[in-house]
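Notes from the 1:1 (GR / supervisor)

We went over the backlog. Supervisor wanted to see one worked example end to end before approving the batch request, so GR pasted a single chain during the call. The sequence is below; no edits were made to it. Supervisor asked that the structure be written out right there so they could see what the output format looks like.
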Amino acid sequence: MSVRVILPPSETKSDGGKGAPLDLDTLVFPELNPIRKQIGEALVALAADLDASCKALGLGRTQLAEVDRNAELWISLTRPAIERYTGVLYDAFDYASMTRATKAKVAGRVMIGSALFGVVGAGDLIPAYRLSGGSKLPGMRTIAATWKPELSHSLDAVDDFVVDLRSGVYHQLGPVRGAVTATVVTEQPDGSRSVVSHFNKHHKGLIARELVRTRRTVRDINALAAVLSDAGQRIEIDGPDRIVVVTD
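Structure output shown during the call:
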């Protein structure tokens, strides 16, 4: 048994790529491909109607390029998922700075949640696209209803210690039985605490980074807390399946 980390996706994604167009059969959990194809085809069809795309995807007039990305879903170039997603969490994870050996561990330990794909492996080749977990495509159920319960079935079959760093709706697409989750809180001088999304994303990126860099075996929540504490994070264990990261 090893540790497996599930990251949330990001709305922002890098452009371009050098990989061949999307091939669903190369993605992890190929049993999910019928749902991936259904959602992908609906997304491409939606792209033919600019106004409907903006409404369904919550896009403003300055984001129309996102519709073009969706229109070219099956034909655009691809790149590894860990390089496709961008933003605060992925900046903290800092994949580009990792050694070749650590990047190899990323491929085996990291997965990324996705409204379109359910979940992908860090090394899976995917195109740029726009679809959020809270979206509802015309003629389909909500994204959450579309993925339940198939995504959970696939993730529950993973024979590893799972640290699920997805948040909100992406966690609900397919909860993992027995997975450990993480909450990041900011502690004020008076002892009061609050959840702040920016720090939440940043520290989850740091958590994932330490879990691919560590040489220690992480098979339970106590080992997880020890690795993160040794890396300088203030960690509290809150029950059998949740850690709390406390920041100033």
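Supervisor's comment: The chain has one domain: 3-247.
Batch request approved.
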